[in-house]
Amino acid sequence: MVECHDELFLLDAGTGLSNIRNYRSIISKYDTIHLILSHYHLDHTIGIIYLDPFVRDKKIKIYGPGRMAYPETTSYYMHALLRREFFSRCIDDFSDDVQIIDFPAESFRAGNTKITVKEQQHSSPSFRIVLDDKLIYATDTTFDPGVWNELSGTLLLHECWDCHQTISDRHTSLWQLKYQLPLNKFDKVLLLHQNPAWDVSDYEFIEKSIAGTNLILAKDGMQLSV
Ligand SMILES: [Zn+2]
Ligand SMILES: [Zn+2]
């Protein structure tokens, strides 16, 4: 959840969106909720069902890659995900004003906020999402060192799927972030999309590996100012 220029953004809608019940006071400040999807994999979309009771009086704008990278539109995929066989409310029933929009270009505006999106390499096309050239959200992507020589920002939210020296064509490892990312280009680098297979010893290893760097393990409820 990101508050930017008096607007509220949600970046992806995984099961973490169930925490939205703890942020009613923030949601109540806004008439519009902007949900930006990096791609449609279930771990990034299934949590949309948790939005339902909190947004009935809001305008909902859902943005996704759609025809920029897929054969069908974001509207098609959202309606397929929330077919009546799977959930009692169709996406159009979430409020009186639901708009589902394919990314219109690699740079567009959502309210007063500049949004930049760029396709990344993953098992299905996923998109890096940048808000106002400050906050960079890069999940479900192989690590591409070339990208990070050009990009900088205040806060980087980057996926971290493998905690050891793994090179994958779908995901990024801690080793790549620690040794191949120019960490000094960012104030903080938050590690997200943590692997559900990690156990306590993996977390201990990661905490030890990132000590003294600007890499931070993201945790539920964490709040940061940019
Ligand atoms: Zn994912
Ligand atoms: Zn994915």
Beta-strand proportion: 25-35%
Q: If classified by CATH, what would the architecture of the domain at 1-104 be?
A: 4-Layer Sandwich
CATH class of the domain at 1-104: Alpha Beta
Average pLDDT number: 95
* Uncertain stretches of 5 or more adjacent residues: none
Query: H/E series, N to C?
Result: EEHEHEHEEEEEHEHEHE
The counted number of beta strands is 12
Derived structural class: alpha/beta
What's the topology here?
Layout: E1 2-4, E2 7-11, H1 24-27, E3 32-36, H2 42-45, E4 59-64, H3 74-81, E5 97-102, E6 107-110, E7 113-120, E8 126-131, E9 135-138, H4 145-150, E10 155-159, H5 174-180, E11 188-192, H6 200-210, E12 215-217
Parallel strand pairs: 2-3, 3-4, 4-5, 9-10, 10-11, 11-12
Antiparallel strand pairs: 1-2, 6-7, 7-8, 8-9
The structure holds zinc ion (ZN) (2 copies).
One zinc ion binds near residues 43, 44, 140 and 193.
Structure characterization notes:
This protein has about 230 residues and is an alpha/beta fold. It has a domain at about 1-105: Ribonuclease Z/Hydroxyacylglutathione hydrolase-like (Metallo-beta-lactamase, Chain A, 4-Layer Sandwich). The protein has six helices and twelve strands. It binds zinc ion (2 copies). One zinc ion binds near residues 39, 41 and 140.
